Structure formats: structure tokens, C-alpha cells
Amino acid sequence: MRIGVVSDTHGHLPGTRDAVRMLESLEVEAVLHCGDIGSPEVVACFVAWPTHFVFGNCDADRKQL
After folding, report:
1. CA distance linking residue 50 with residue 39, whole number of Å
2. Distance CA 24, CA 56 (A)
3. Strand-by-strand arrangement of the 51-53 sheet
4. What values do phi and psi take at 18, rounded to 5?
5. How far apart are CA 14 and CA 24, in angstroms?
6. E strands, the chain, where?
7. Among 9, 20, 53, 55, which has the highest number of CB atoms less than 10 A from its own CB?
8. Rounded to whole angstroms, how far apart are CA atoms 41 and 21?
9. What is the 8-class DSSP label of residue 51?
10. Helix (H, G, I), strand (E, B), or coil: what is residue 55?
11. CB–CB of 51/30 below 8 Å?
12. CB 36 within 8 A of CB 58
């Protein structure tokens, strides 16, 4: 199984979209986001895969994420 690992997106959508395109090109089957997600919009970028999110120190509003 090919697993993609990302972290520290901090709600930055252009960079997150770049990462998603890279994960698509690598044909990953699942994603692990290792913290500092930053916004619900970032979470939505990963709907194509089973994704496991770890909260980071910048993820204060966990209910929103």
C-alpha cells in the first residue's frame, strides 16, 4: 500500500492543492496528515482518500476541523 504523508498545511490552500496533485500522481491509497491542518477547507482537499488527521499545536478549533 502506498501512503502519502503531509503536515503543516496551516490552512494554505494553494500549497495543499499542490500536495494533493502530487499525491494523485503518486497514486497513493491513503493519507496521513501529521498536524497543523489549519482549516476545514484543507480537510476537504483530501476527500479522495481515506485520510487520518493528527491535530497539531495550531489546530485550536478541533470541532471545526
Report:
1. 18
2. 24
3. 3-6, 30-33, 51-53
4. -60, -45
5. 15
6. 3-6, 30-33, 51-53
7. 9
8. 16
9. E
10. coil
11. yes
12. yes
pTM above 0.85, yes or no: yes
Q: State the Cα–Cα distance between residues 25 and 40, nearest whole angstrom.
A: 24
pLDDT tens, N- to C-terminus, the chain (65 residues): 999 999 999 999 999 999 999 999 999 999 999 999 999 999 999 999 999 999 999 998 888 88
C-alpha 33/C-alpha 50 separation (Å) is 11
| pLDDT reported for residue 27 | 97
Q: Do 7 and 34 meet the contact criterion of CB atoms below 8 Å apart? A: yes
Q: Which three cell numbers stand for residue 43?
A: 480537510
- What is Dmax (Cα atoms) for the chain? 32
Q: Residue 9 is which amino acid? A: T
